[in-house]
Amino acid sequence: MASIEKIPPQVEAKYRKFIQARELLEKVAQEKALLEASLAEIDAIIEELNSLPEGSEVYKMKGIVLVKSDKEAVLKELNSKKESLELKLMALRKQEESLQKEVERLGKELNQMLAKGAGGAPVGGAG
Known about the structure:
The chain has 127 residues and is mainly α. The protein has a single domain, classed as Helix Hairpins (Orthogonal Bundle). It has helices spanning 9-51, 71-119, and strands at residues 58-62, 65-69. A two-stranded antiparallel ribbon has the order 1-2. The longest helix has 49 residues, at 71-119. Residues 119-127 have low confidence and may be disordered.
């Protein structure tokens, strides 16, 4: 029967960091995708509102009720929300880039640690 070698603690710790970074990267990517979808929706609404003639009636949701609103006020509110989302998106893109580099770095280090263990002395110590 083949013996199962124990994984060195430093490899195990590096692997845990790698998995955590990768999971966080996936979470950030999902959040970024949601923000991009929200921005696209806001852009489409702004474009639609801008195509309406002056004095057009505009309604917006307040909870579960549609309320008549001033077109310019709605545009101002949407542009403010768009600006806020763009700032959040910019921060997420930076975070995603940083996490991507971290995942790549940890992956390389992990591969090097595993290659040293496989190519030299057994990973679990004396065998």
